[in-house]
Amino acid sequence: MAGALLMALVPLAALDDPTADDMVTDDYSCAIDAYVSGPLAQIRADALDDIVGPGAAYADDGPEVWMRRQLCLRVAGFDPGAIDGIRGPATQAAEQAYAAAHGGVQVDWKSRNFAAHTPGKAQEKLREAAAASSAWTRRRGRA
């Protein structure tokens, strides 16, 4: 699915397994806040292309690219304010908070390494939320 930042919700071991690239799975897109299906290798490629954006500089990136970035920041636990496609003060503050929370990582959306980092952190937040919800449900069932 080209044009959407996709993030695989697969076991972390599968991300290091070169044979996992052919796996077809349901994956979460933090950019569109929905699940999609497809081959893992294609999802990885689309994710990096979409979050990096088409141009060499931030000025080349349109609102759609910034909206994807803002959504992924939000899913990762950093509030960029309105999802409006503008890299305004709230988005910049979310980027700074993201950097501080992850050991001072340099926020560079044009870096494919950074682009791979952000969806991974969003994935961790989703897993934490799912685990907390499951634990709460189990505790509530015992009460």
Structure commentary:
The protein is mainly α and 143 residues long. The protein has helices at 12-15, 40-52, 63-75, 89-101, 112-142, and strands at 24-29, 34-39. It has a two-stranded antiparallel ribbon. A hairpin with a 4-residue loop joins strand 1 and strand 2 (34-39). The longest helix has 31 residues, at 112-142. It is globular and about 55 Å long. The model is unreliable at 1-16 (pLDDT under 50).
Question: What layout of secondary structure does this protein have?
Answer:
Layout: H1 12-15, E1 24-29, E2 34-39, H2 40-52, H3 63-75, H4 89-101, H5 112-142
Antiparallel strand pairs: 1-2
Helix pairs in contact: 2-5, 3-5
As laid out across the biggest beta sheet, the strand order is 1-2
Order of helices and strands, N to C?
A: HEEHHHH
Tally of individual helices = 5
Q: Tell me the span between the first and last alpha carbons.
A: 44 Å
SS-based class: mainly alpha
Count of individual beta strands: 2
Proportion of strand residues: 5-15%
* Structural Rg: 16 Å
Low-confidence region ranges: 1-16
- How would you state the average pLDDT, rounded? 76
The percentage helix is: 40-55%
Query: How would a textbook summarize the main sheet?
Result: 2 strands, antiparallel
Shape: globular
List keywords for this structure.
143 residues; mainly alpha; two-stranded antiparallel ribbon; 5 helices; 2 strands; disordered N terminus
Provide a concise account of the structure shown.
The protein has 5 helices and 2 strands, in the order H-E-E-H-H-H-H. With 143 residues, it is mainly α. Strand 1 (24-29) and strand 2 (34-39) form a beta hairpin.
